[in-house]
Amino acid sequence: MYVSNFIPKLTGKAFCCRTCWLRPQDMEFFYVSLLSLFVLLVSLSLHFLFYKSKSGGTLPPGKTGWPVVGESLEFLSTGWKGHPEKFIFDRMVKYSSQVFRTSLLGEQAAVFCGAAGNKFLFSNENKLVQAWWPSSVNKVFPSSTQTSSKEEAIKMRKMLPNFFKPEALQRYIGMMDVIANRHFASSWENNDQVVVFPLSKRFTFWLACRVFVSIEDPNHVAKFADPFDLLASGLISIPIDLPGTPFHRAIKASNFIRKELVRIIKQRKVDLAEGKASPTQDILSHMLLTSDENGKFMAELDIADKILGLLIGGHDTASSACCFIVKYLAELPEVYEGVYKEQMEIANSKAPGELLNWEDIQKMKYSWNVACEVLRLAPPLQGAFREALTDFMYNGFSIPKGWKIYWSANSTHRNPEFFPEPLKFDPSRFEGSGPAPYTFVPFGGGPRMCPGKEYARLEILVFMHHLVKRFRWEKLIPDEKIVVNPMPIPEKGLPVRLYPHKA
């Protein structure tokens, strides 16, 4: 029987929720247990309050909140309320503008702030710090826990450059153009109103399926879409595997997707052997045909996990960016006009049926400045965790080995020290040499900078091209709330009224 089921009565008697009356010796045991629990909580609180580094140095200023829970609820709730930067800036003012201490997701943590913090972490990747993900991620991707996250990251980063460097991505532009054309024709045209966020997710997911595993049939793509939504929403969550929880739904979804991917992998092996598939057609073929330094090939489940991660990373963040581009262009007619003029010059230069190419993308300078300003104000990646590999000093404070370190995009993106009038939408910030180093970090930085940065740039620009050459639009909810969980999303999905351009 759980302690929470006991309800003491004012009469001095007690009963449990099942109405079974307790004997005096049961009551004595209950109160002793309750007192022990209280002492334990107080002891843990004092431990967190006066914890000192083993190296004897002074820890960063701050507080760790409640035992186990720490400040996680406040950290998450500021995002749910649409102001994820509040958690960071409140503590920067109260404790330190450089680094402060907290406890997040059950872990002792230090939050590094500002450009100096970003530079330190990005420059010391795999030296003083390494990537860290909450336990929920490892449980959703079980086969990847056979080796360390550091080893897995190194493996992936050896594979990806061949596909994500600009010269390799050039061959995908025409395909992106075709899919964008089909997407807008089927989901936007002939509609007076649309809800933008689900459609932007559909577009970026369709592209990811095509680029990574050569799935192009809309019906086949749709089969994956709903499970991927469940997986993404429960990936960074409290890892309670009980029916009805986001984490439970994420695990079920990942198992379903993994089985489907293994089926695709098996068929690809046959197609490669029979010459029906190309060794260079996508990342899946590359993974199947590439061995490690010992001549060992990846297992099918490991490949499925890698593809699973790529499909999530390859569409979730870009879909948020595309959605907010629609939002800001609706709010700022003068910015829309600049994008429209640039994109129509490109559209009018094309022969009928001619696809976009690399030269066209290079002409979209103002459009990309607009997209960057959107990424500054609504970064899909709010920040990321690292883990201290050893004790080290930062800004005069000791960071113990094993502590988790969090860097926040908003500590620079919305900081007037780096971006004057930070809430003002101003694409000119990205003209010339652009922002100072380590201040604009929507894709991270250092060795762990998102390898898909250039891929994201292409899909965002192709989306903008097809969007503005077809429509003007207005928001149907003028002051729609933005929630962050873990990416920024308009609460109602950003419904808009479309006004097609006259032919």
TrEMBL record:
It comes from Ilex paraguariensis. PANTHER family: BETA-AMYRIN 28-MONOOXYGENASE, CYTOCHROME P450 26. SUPFAM superfamilies: Cytochrome P450. The keyword Glycoprotein does not apply. The chain crosses the membrane at residues 29-51. InterPro entries: Cyt_P450, Cyt_P450_CS, Cyt_P450_E_grp-I, Cyt_P450_sf. Its main location: membrane. Pfam families: p450 (PF00067). One of its GO terms (cellular component) is membrane. This is Cytochrome P450.
